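Lab channel / #folding
Pinned by the channel admin:
"Please post every new chain as: sequence first, then the structure tokens as a reply. Keep commentary short and put observations after the output so the thread stays searchable."

First post following the new format, from NK:
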Amino acid sequence: MSQNAFTESHLPGLPVKRGKVRDVYDFGDRLLFIATDRISAFDWIMPNGIPDKGRVLTGISKMWFERLNVSNHLISMAPSELPLPPEAPLADLMGRSMVVRKTEVVPIECVVRGYLSGSGWKEYKQSQTVCGISLPAGLEESAKLPEPIFTPATKAESGHDENIPFEEMCRQVGNDLSEKLRALSFEIYQQAADFAHSKGIILADTKFEFGLLNEEIILIDEVLTPDSSRFWPLETYRPGGPQFSFDKQFVRDWLESTDWDKNSPPPTLPNEIVDQTRAKYIEAYELLTGEAFEWK
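Reply from TO:
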């Protein structure tokens, strides 16, 4: 590993909101997003992080923000543009920070699924539906759906997001905005899926977050990363079972092999699991961006 994991930012005198991965600092009309190297699984943040994971997520998000034909919140990758305290660790923040426009966040996760996997597959086996949406009979695990489906969820600061029907989304944020967000989510998903396919990657599903700024819909947060999406290698894709993926698979698999009960603080990840997970995130970065990961 090239360095220790960066698991928590310290900017003295500035209030911080810490999520599972990101630390967010408020500068009025702008925010500073810092992607740490924290990693979560089964709704728990692991005691140790994955070195450079935050830089991988930020670099991938930057690539998508620049490539996608949609308004987004990114202003700059230079945290030094903000009035940071003199003792701010700028070297640690570089590559993992985004200065972004502050928006009124829409409290809905906009999920698009193009393939039958995860919780969707579990539900399909029971009811031939995914999030209440009826699907054709006879689909296999990891099968490509006849067309992508939109399955919104409520946003959770901790724990699982909760899937909701589209009608409930309409009740919460209004019919007009819901229709626009669904259409925009499908549009972004298709743009991204086509590009990822050209790089040898299947975008199985993903989730988007949006905000409103002067009544304009803005794509916010991270976008199309291995933390918010299922990316599968095209060359090994075979429907009929689980797929190899560019994400925290090594972490989940190792945890499942232990006697951890998922109700108490999780164990520390072994070095080999950390190394394998880091390598998989970096492989996703290099395939998608076409560039070598510069923080090795």
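NK: The chain is about 30% helix and 25% strand.
TO: also worth noting, The CA atoms of residues 35 and 54 lie 4 Å apart.
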